[in-house]
Sequence to fold (62 residues):
Amino acid sequence: MRVKRVLAAGAVAERLAALGVQTGEAVAVLRVSPRKRTLVAGTAYAVFALDAALAAAVEVTD
Fold:
């Protein structure tokens, strides 16, 4: 999957960009918590956890 766009702004957008979550970059969902409140994702640069609200701010394509 690839990032289509990031709907976050400010410091949140900067932090996501530092993790490699930028338009056009490949991203993979590695694990989802049982209650779907947190997911673990990875890029070529990092593996990180996102809460559901932040993950919803990242649009991806197949």
User: Anything to note?
Assistant: The first strand starts at residue 2 and ends at 6. DSSP finds two helices and five strands in the chain. The domain at 2-61 is CATH 2.30.30.90 (SH3 type barrels.). The chain has one domain: 2-61.
